[in-house]
C-alpha cells in the first residue's frame, strides 16, 4: 500500500506502531532518556505548585481504581487517566519542561505522564514505556510540522491541541491497539483536542497539559472499546487542519517520515534551563550576558529597552504581572530577574522575590520590530535586542538570535533544584540510573521507587530545617 | 457597574446566576419542561445505542463514587461526571434531541444530563435543577448568536464547543459557585471546548455531547477548587472568538440579554420529530408531502432530484451511507425512508431497513444551488427542492423553506416510541407528571423513579415477546 493512498491518520498510526527501540539509533534512545528524566525532574519540581494542589483537591474524597501513582510525596494511587492528569499538571506547572520548536509546544510534559501512568497500570516493561514515549513525541513533532505555525497563531496552545495525539499514540502502543484502533484513537482525539492561548499565565495552562495526557489514555481506551471515528480527522473538510490551522500540510508529514527524521536528533527538542516561557529565552540570555560581561550593578540601572518580534510579544503578554505565575510570561519580569541574579531559578517566582522585583518593571520597555522575526515563526528563535541604560548614562547592548543549549552540568543542576535533593545524593543517582537503564526494566517499579526516594529525601530535608 | 465595562464571561455569569424560576415567564417555564421531558425521552431511546454500549464498556471494571444514576435499565450509580457522560451520549445517540437554530446545535442533550447527574449527586431540588437547565440553554443560545455561524463553518460541532459553556453554568448554578468562580468555570471551559464536524456520522458525534455534559461539571468543580482562568476567554486575542470563529460578537450577546430574549420563547428551539439531522428536515417534509398528496407508490419511482444549499449539503455528507448511523446524515437515505414509509422512525436505522433501502439510493441525486441559502446560514432552514420522476414519467415537485413544528400529539408519540412504552401506560404518565411538576420536587428521586419504571416496562415488554 503506497503512503499516498493512506489517510494521514493511517500514516501516523502505521509510523507510530512501527517504532522499535532496537531499530532507533542509539542517539535517539539516549536523548529520549535524557528528556524523559528531565520531565520527571519537572514533575518533582511542580508537584507542590498551586495548580497541582488545586487539582488534587478536586480529586480528593472521590473513589478511583487504584492502579497508577500520583507523583506526590504521598504516592497515592488512582486510575491511570487521573494520575496522568495530575502528573501532567505538575510536569508543566513550572514551565520548566522541554520544548519542541517543531511542535511549537511541550511534548514530553504530555507524553511522559501518559506513558508512566498507563505503563504502571498495565504492568508494561521499561522498553514498552520508553518506546511509547518516543512514538508520542515523534507524532507531536510531525503534527507540529503539518499544522504549525498556524495552529498557534490562531490561538491554540499546541502543547495540548497537538500533544493529545502524541499521548493517544503512546497509550495506543502500551495498550497494544491494532492499526485500525489506533486510527480510531486519533479520530477521537481530534474531537477532544482543545486548549487556548488566552489562558497563558493562568493555572489553566498547566491543566492543558494534564488534560492532554489524560485524554490520550481516554481516546485509546474508547478505541479499544470499539468506538469508531473519522479516518480523515486531519485532512477532512471540518477536520483538524480546517478547524485549527490553514489546512493540513501532508507533504511536511510524509517528507519527515520518508527521510527518517527523529525529533530527538533534529536539534528542535530543547531542555529548558530556566523556568520561564521559551519565547523569553533570548531576552534572558542577553540580560545575563550584559550583566556578567560588564559586572553591572542592579541598583545602577536606569532603564531597559527590549525589542522583539510581534510573535514573541504575543507569547509574553504580561508587562506588569499581577502574580508570580504571570511573571513566566512577562518580558520585563524575566529580564529583571536575569539582571538581578544572572540566572532565573524556581525561587524567582516566590511571593518574596516577586515583591522585590515588581517595582523595577516599569523601567523596562518592550517594543516590537518586524525585522526581528526569523523565518521559523513563533518557535522562540526570533531575534531579541536588549539595551540597558545605566544611571550614569553608560549603555550596553546585546542581540541574541537563538538561545544556547544547556550543558550536561546545567542539566544535573536543574534536576537537583527541581527535586530539592542534594546534587550528590544517592536518590538522585538512583533516579538517573533507573531512567538510563529503563529499557532493561521488567516494570516501572524501580523507577517509581526512585521517585519515591526523592520525595522522602525532600521530606527528610524539610524535617531537618 | 455598566454592562459595557464587564468582560463577556462576567456578563454571561451574572446573567446565568440571576435567572430565577419565579421570575421567568410561565411560557418559558412550560417550554423548558417540555424540552426537558423530550430530552429524557431521547435518553431512554438512546441508551441501547452502539455508542452508549461502547462507552459503558469503557466504564466497566472501574471504581467510581456512587452518586449519580446512569440512565440504563440497571440504573447503576457512578460519579456525576461519568453519569453525565454516558447519559449525554444516550441523549444524542439517535440525533432525535432538540435543536437550537440560535446555537446551531443541540443544547438540551448537553445540559439535561449535566443538570440531572449533578442535581442527583448534590441532592438538589427540582426547582434548582430546572433553573440550572434553563440557564444552561440560554447561555448556549447567547453564545450561538455571538459565535455562529462561523464556529460551525470553521468545522466545529457547536453542540459541544458551545454546549460545554451551557453545561458549565448549569453546574455552576447547582454547586452554588460565586460570580468569580463562575467566570473561572467559563474560562476553564474555553480550554476544554472541542468537537469536530469531521466526526459527523460516526459514534464520536454523540460522544461530543456526553463529553460536553461531563466537562461542564469538571470545569465548575475545578473553579470551586480555586483554579483561576482568563476572564476574557471569549473576546481575548487567542480566545474562543479568535480561535473558533471570526471574533466574538459582543453586541449580539448584550442586545439579547438587554431585550430579555429567552431561547424558550423565540421559536428557535425545536423538538425534533424525526431522528435525523435537522438539515435534512425540509427534504423529508417535501418527500412526505409529495408521497401523501399523490399516493405515489415507492416501487413506481424512477429517480429523484434534491436541490439544497451548500451548507445543507455540508451537514449531510453521506450520499451512499456505509452503515445506518451515516444514514442520519444522508439526504438520499432520509428521502428514501420518507418516500417509503411517509415518516422516519427510530426503526428506519435498523440493519434490516438499512439493507432494504440502500439499493434505492443511487436513484437519488443531490445538487447544490446558491439561491437556496436563506439568510440564517446553516440553521437548517435553507430551502430544499425535491423533484420526483415516476417510471411512467409523471413528475412531482415540492419546495420547502422551513420545516413545520411538531404538534403535541406527535410529541407524545415520540416519547412513547423512544421509551418503547405504550402510549397510554402508567409509567409514561408518571414520567410526564414528574417533569411537569419538577419545580415542586424536593429532590430528583421521583423523576428518577419514573425513569426506572419506564425501563422496567421495557423489560417487561421484552420478556413478553
Descriptive notes:
The structure is a homodimer. With about 475 residues, the first copy, chain A, is an alpha+beta fold. Chain A has 2 domains: about 270 residues, 2-methylcitrate dehydratase PrpD (Orthogonal Bundle), CATH 1.10.4100.10; about 120 residues, 2-Layer Sandwich (60s Ribosomal Protein L30, Chain: A). Helices cover about 55% and strands about 5% of the residues of chain A. The first copy, chain A, has a 4-stranded mixed beta sheet with strand order 6-5-7-8. In chain A, strands 1-2 form a two-stranded antiparallel ribbon. Chains A and B meet through α3, α10, α11 and α12 of A and α3, α10, α11 and α12 of B.
Biggest interchain interface, per-side counts: A-B, 55 and 55 residues
The chain-level mean pLDDT of chain A equals 93
β-sheet strand percentage of chain A: 5-15%
CATH architecture annotation of the largest domain in chain A: Orthogonal Bundle
Biggest sheet character of chain A: 4 strands, mixed
Helix content of chain A: 40-55%
Radius of gyration of chain A: 22 Å
Order of strands across the biggest sheet of chain A?
6-5-7-8
Morphology of chain A = globular
By oligomeric state, this entry counts as: homodimer
Amino acid at each position: 500500500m503506497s503512503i499516498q493512498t493512506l489517510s494521514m491518520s493511517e500514516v501516523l498510526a502505521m509510523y507510530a506502531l512501527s517504532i522499535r527501540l532496537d531499530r532507533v539509533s542509539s542517539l535517539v534512545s539516549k536523548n529520549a532518556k535524557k528528556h524523559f528524566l528531565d520531565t520527571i525532574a519537572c514533575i518533582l519540581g511542580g508537584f507542590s505548585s498551586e495548580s497541582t494542589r488545586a487539582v488534587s483537591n478536586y480529586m480528593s474524597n472521590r473513589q478511583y481504581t487504584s492502579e497508577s501513582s500520583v507523583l506526590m510525596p504521598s504516592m497515592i494511587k488512582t486510575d491511570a487517566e487521573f494520575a496522568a492528569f495530575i502528573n501532567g499538571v505538575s510536569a508543566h506547572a513550572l514551565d520548566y519542561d522541554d520544548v519542541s520548536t517543531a511542535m511549537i509546544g511541550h511534548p514530553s510534559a504530555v507524553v511522559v505522564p501518559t506513558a508512566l501512568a498507563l505503563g504502571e497500570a498495565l504492568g508494561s516493561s521499561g522498553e514498552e514505556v520508553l518506546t511509547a514515549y518516543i512514538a508520542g513525541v515523534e507524532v507531536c513533532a510531525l503534527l507540529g510540522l503539518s499544522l504549525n505555525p498556524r495552529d498557534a497563531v490562531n490561538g491554540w496552545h499546541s502543547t495540548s491541541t497537538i500533544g493529545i495525539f502524541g499521548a493517544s499514540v503512546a497509550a495506543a502502543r502500551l495498550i497494544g491497539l491494532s492499526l485500525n484502533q489506533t486510527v480510531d484513537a486519533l479520530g477521537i482525539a481530534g474531537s477532544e483536542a482543545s486548549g487556548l492561548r488566552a489562558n497563558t499565565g493562568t493555572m489553566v495552562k498547566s491543566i492543558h497539559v494534564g488534560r492532554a495526557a489524560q485524554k490520550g489514555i481516554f481516546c485509546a481506551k474508547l478505541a479499544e472499546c470499539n468506538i469508531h471515528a473519522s479516518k480523515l480527522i486531519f485532512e477532512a473538510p471540518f477536520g483538524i487542519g480546517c478547524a485549527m490551522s490553514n489546512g493540513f500540510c501532508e507533504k511536511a508529514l510524509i517528507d519527515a517520515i520518508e527521510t527518517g527524521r527523529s525529533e530527538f536528533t533534529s536539534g528542535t527538542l530543547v531542555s529548558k534551563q530556566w523556568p520561564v516561557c521559551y519565547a523569553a529565552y533570548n531576552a534572558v540570555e542577553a540580560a545575563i550576558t550584559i550583566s556578567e560581561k560588564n559586572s553591572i550593578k542592579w541598583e545602577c540601572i536606569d532603564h531597559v529597552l527590549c525589542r522583539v518580534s510581534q510573535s514573541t510579544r504575543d507569547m509574553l503578554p504580561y508587562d506588569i504581572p499581577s502574580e508570580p505565575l504571570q511573571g513566566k510570561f512577562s518580558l520585563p519580569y524575566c529580564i529583571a530577574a536575569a539582571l538581578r541574579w544572572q540566572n532565573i531559578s524556581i525561587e524567582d517566582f516566590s511571593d518574596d522575590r516577586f515583591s522585590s522585583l515588581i517595582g523595577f518593571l516599569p523601567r523596562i520597555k518592550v517594543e516590537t520590530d518586524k525585522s526581528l522575526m526569523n523565518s521559523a515563526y513563533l518557535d522562540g528563535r526570533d531575534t531579541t535586542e536588549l539595551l540597558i541604560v545605566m544611571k550614569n548614562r553608560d549603555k550596553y547592548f546585546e542581540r541574541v538570535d537563538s538561545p544556547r543549549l544547556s550543558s550536561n552540568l546545567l542539566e544535573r543542576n536543574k534536576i537537583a533544584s527541581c527535586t530539592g535533593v542534594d546534587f550528590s545524593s544517592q536518590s538522585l543517582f538512583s533516579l538517573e540510573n533507573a531512567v538510563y537503564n529503563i529499557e532493561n526494566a521488567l516494570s516501572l517499579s524501580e523507577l517509581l521507587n526512585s521517585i519515591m526516594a526523592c520525595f522522602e529525601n525532600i521530606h527528610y530535608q524539610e524535617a531537618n530545617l
